[in-house]
Specification:
Blueprint lengths: L3 H8 L3 E2 L4 E2 H4 L2 E6 L4 E6 L8 H16 L6 E6 L5 H9 L4 H5 L8 H25 L4 H6 L9 H12 L25 H29 L11
Parallel strand pairs: 4-5
Antiparallel strand pairs: 1-2, 3-4
Helix pairs in contact: 3-4, 6-8, 6-9
């Protein structure tokens, strides 16, 4: 029988597209059960009733894909609670419809472009998380421009950056440049390093601030912690 723990582990791979953090650690998983006949029932929640429906749709759809892929899960039922567009999102994801089909004339296009934009921001924020400790250790921008991804010290942040770059088809092997343009994949030249690092830093700080705001709003909205939520 499939365990709840295995379903939650799969949900760890589902990220808030703007914050680039798992829905589990953010507290967005309200409940998770698995029946004896393999039906996984997952309820998601968000910080506000009016969270952007495109962001919400991406998370519910990604959760459906992740849970459906768990060995032993016969059917995934992913439900977004307490959201103004819950009916359209839940119905659309259950029917395997796209965003446009689910929202009709209210939707301008599918969400592939939006997803790529957020992954590009995640690459910039990840670059900051990897490069900032190196700068603190005494390396210069010129040093960073010469480093490869594999020469950066091994860390979860480095592997997270590698994974986000791979999602975009950007160079992500050990011999790839540590700093690349998140759109073109080209190495960042020495002269462009200061601006690139400033952009990366601003992106990372913005994501961290938004994460704190979302966590605070979620705590105010719900009295209980989510499954897998990081409360420290």
């Amino acid at each position: 029988m499939t365990s709840t723990a295995s379903v939650l582990a799969a949900l760890d791979s589902v990220r808030d597209p703007e914050l680039d953090q798992p829905v589990t650690s953010l507290g967005f998983v309200a409940s998770c059960t698995v029946s004896e006949d393999g039906v996984a029932d997952v309820h998601l929640r968000l910080p506000t009733y009016f969270c952007a429906p495109n962001f919400a749709f991406l998370m519910v759809a990604d959760a459906y894909e992740a849970v459906s892929g768990v060995p032993g899960v016969r059917r995934a039922e992913i439900v977004l609670d307490d959201h103004f567009a819950s009916e359209a999102i839940n119905g659309g994801v259950a029917a395997r419809a796209g965003f446009v089909e689910s929202f009709g004339t209210l939707a301008e296009s599918e969400l592939d472009s939006l997803r790529r934009d957020f992954i590009r921001k995640a690459v910039l924020a990840g670059t900051d998380r990897v490069c900032r400790p190196l700068l603190s250790s005494g390396l210069t921008g010129d040093d960073l421009a010469a480093l490869t991804l594999g020469e950066a010290p091994p860390s979860p942040d480095r592997e997270r950056l590698r994974a986000r770059r791979a999602e975009l088809g950007l160079p992500s092997t050990d011999d790839s440049p540590l700093m690349v343009d998140p759109v073109t994949g080209e190495a960042v030249g020495v002269q462009a390093v200061p601006l690139h690092l400033r952009k990366a830093r601003l992106t990372a700080v913005g994501a961290e601030a938004n994460s704190g705001i979302c966590r605070g709003m979620l705590r105010d909205r719900y009295a209980t912690s989510g499954l897998g939520e990081e409360t420290a």
